Amino acid sequence: MLKLLVPVNGSRHALDAVRHAAFLCQDRCASDIVLLNVQAPPEGGRASAYHSLEALRQLEEQDGEAALRQARAILDDAGARYVAQIRVGRVAETIAQSAAANQCDMIVMGSAARTPLGSLIRARLSNRLMRLSRIPVMLVR
Questions:
Q1: Cβ distance 24 to 31 under 8 Å?
Q2: 6 vs 39, higher pLDDT
Q3: CB 70: neighbour CB atoms within 10 A?
């Protein structure tokens, strides 16, 4: 059975991917899920000039937990086995590295947003991830 990595950011599209992963577990196509939230590194931004690194790390943790909350509820309702992780870094690179580190067989992620800008950003992310990843990437619409 497959071990899936599902990146989540709290968006409706990411939750669609979580629902699909839960279905794959219920259908016995997948056995384990790694939920991953990737936070952008704050060190280079303006916030680092006004807040301590410790305070910024706490904010990352809070934002990550908020993004994972609904995804956890979906998987709990489905009875799926999962672990949740929060990482900091560039999104596509961090997803690919986490998939390799967790020995996942597939990445399942939500498809592009419905707005033109959202579609462009999401398409760039999924294309970059497909180039970086050594495992298949499934886009859920």
A1: no
A2: 6
A3: 16
